[in-house]
Amino acid sequence: MGERRLSPEKLIEELRAQLAEPDIDERHVLTWAVEFKELLVDAYRDAAEAAEDELLRRLYLRVAKEEQQRIDDLRAELQAMTWALTDSLTGLENRRSFDRRLKTEIARVRRYGQTLACVFIDVDNFKAVNDRWGHVAGDEVLRQMAALLVSAVRAGDVAARYGGDEFALLLPHATEQSARRAAERLTDAVHQHAFTWEDEVIPLRVSVGVACMGKDDPLEDLVRRADEDLVRAKRAAAGYPPTENR
After folding, report:
1. What are 194-233's pLDDT values in tens digits?
2. Which of 24, 55, 84 is where one domain is finished?
3. Lower Cβ count inside 10 Å, N or C end of the chain?
4. Of 165, 188, 216, 221, which one is the catalytic site residue?
């Protein structure tokens, strides 16, 4: 954050662009607020060094100290907000954060005519992992799954723990074809990965559901269709015949 050191004019330009986005993320606003105040602190400290009058120098330093305290408060608020939107086990975004990001991305699809893909990833027979190796081993498997997801997504994609042993991705600008290719690469990576616990390899497979939406598609369809595609994949993996409505 502090490494960017943009000019105030550039920060204002970027902030205006961010505020023009639909459903802007509050965390982003707080980040910009911290950057502005860091610039203020630097300016007041520079002014204090240049001041010839001792009283004026002390005033500048006092204001800089007060602004620094506000920066610390904003950072604490930003950290608390981040924790509230982060899954404590895997470090991915949690379901609440995913739902917020979904609304933001769908608003962008509506506004700019982009596409958006949703991918659900479910660990097959995860209960068997907990039953055989224990819940601590199961937690480690989920953490390793999360690491694979993070390494597989692009900048701007969203990776979340949707709940239990289910994960979700949002892929802005992706078509259904490109999203399915990404899902296949991810599936291959999971199936080739050696999930280990106490020097023992835990065999693991996943099922994946994919859906894509464009500007004119019904808003509520994206998650529902991805979930239905996941159900079909899990039925196929379990050897069940497909059903007419799934």
Report:
1. 998 988 899 899 999 999 998 777 766 899 999 999 999 9
2. 84
3. N
4. 165
